[in-house]
Amino acid sequence: MATLIIVGAQWGDEAKGKLVDVLGSQAQYVVRYSGGNNAGHTVIVGQETFKFHLLPAGILHPEVTAVLGGGMVVCPKSLLEELDRTRAARSELGRLAISPAAHVVFPYHRLLDQLEEEARGDDKIGTTSRGIGPAYTDKVQRTGIRMGEFVDPTVFPRRLEAVVQVKNRLLELFGGSPLSAKDLHDEYAAYAARLAPFVTDTDALLQDAIVAGERVMFEGAQGTFLDLDHGTYPYVTSSHPTAGGACLGTGVGPRAIDAAIGVCKAYTTRVGSGPFPTELHDETGETIRRQGHEYGTTTGRPRRCGWLDLHALRYSARVNSLSGLALTRLDVLSGLPRLKVATGYRLDGAELRGLPVLARDWERVEPVYDEVEGWEGDIRSAKALSDLPAAAQRYVRLVEEAAGTPIVVLSIGPDREETIVLRPDAFWG
Q1: 280 near 306, Cβ under 8 Å?
Q2: pLDDT tens digits, residue range 274-321?
């Protein structure tokens, strides 16, 4: 096997960045395929902590080519700040390559994001206000500016002038102030000049690499239930963080994908608005938040915490065609005497085979719980599954059986070393 997708199996924030970092040293390419700087990955290496929002976490490995795929929307200013910050902390990084098809996020996208969210009143989606939704709107409307146009000094001024005229009308409609196309161009042309050397035909780059048998890892952002089609619509993101998005956002065909690993927490979290059937509003939820340091990498917002939703996880395993699961944050549950897991949903008294589609049904479902024994003690020094308390081992097996997918990795702490690989052949064969 030479191609591997790492995908969030829940609502995002599952510690995908750590797994990408751990496996990144074994790959030649690590590819972000969707989203923008509304997502965040935290990687802890020894005493250093890296927070990524646009750069693939695999860039920490000097031998890796880190790719921003055409399915992404990229804020140039944020990308350069992140690149400079990472280089200041670590001089040797992997090579960066940016697809010319990736769309560019501009200040008018962020302003419209904020104004539109305010206009929703009590029906706010919970956007990060990074301009991601409006940038994808432009993409679908075929009015967006792509990276290939952005770095072309003969094309960019003309395209920007035309777009800003329309955006200023929208800004004024929402009560905002118009922007100067000249001022925007003067600022962003400087960013374009710095990014131009990185823009290359990444589709061909990746296709050639796969034909040559090189290892390519696709790094998902956010999670399955934030997917535009398969998530808790309308409380979703504007792209496809599911495994299928790896093909859509890179130009790599589905038959070229060898494995897909879903990353899930030993409990469940969600940031922002939207349904969350297993959410806890009590001291147990606060304990999980405190022990797990559950605050958003991108926004700093407290994450909503709840019991592990096995019913949703089973759906996630199917929609992503998962070949394995990476179970993270198992250490956070240590010390809780009893644990609950949702094994099904009921709606109007009837058991659901799948997941709700309508938002109003998501809000009304009742999870069906099983209760299991918890465990005590610090498990972060464990080197094998057998080192864990018996109750923790049973919990791992329960998740595996309910999801119908083998658990291939256990994360028992935030550091690289606090990882137990159960099935080494699940990644690269």
Answers
A1: yes
A2: 999 999 999 999 999 999 999 876 667 899 999 999 999 999 999 999
Both tokens of residue 294?
């559950």
3-state secondary structure of 45: strand
From 26, 25, 58, select the one nearest 41 (Cα to Cα).
Answer: 58
Contact 410, 19 (CB under 8 A): no
Helices 156-173 and 181-195, interaxial angle, to 10°? 130
Task: Write out pLDDT tens, residues 194-233.
Answer: 999 999 999 999 999 999 999 999 998 899 999 999 999 9
- The string of pLDDT tens digits covering residues 43-89 is 877 778 888 999 998 899 999 999 999 999 999 999 999 999 999 99
Q: Is the pTM of this model over 0.70?
A: yes
Tokens of 287: 């304990």
Nearest to 411 by CA among 13, 7, 12, 15: 15
CA distances from residue 83 to 53, 79, 250 in whole angstroms, order as listed: 10, 6, 21
Rounded to 5, what percent of the chain is helix, strand, coil? 40, 20, 40
Give the SS3 label for residue 418: coil
Chain CA centroid to CA 185, Å:
30
Residue 73's DSSP bridge partners are 103
Pairing of strands 407-411, 216-219: unpaired
Give CA torsion, residues 212, 36, 53, 271, to 10 deg: -120
> Which residues belong to the active site?
13, 41
Domains of the chain plus CATH, in order, are 3-101+197-259 (3.40.440.10), 103-195 (1.10.300.10), 264-428 (3.90.170.10)
From CA 318, how far away is CA 58, in angstroms rounded? 26
Give per-residue pLDDT as tens, 370-410: 999 999 999 999 999 999 999 999 999 999 999 999 999 99
Q: Residue 414 in 3-state DSSP?
A: coil
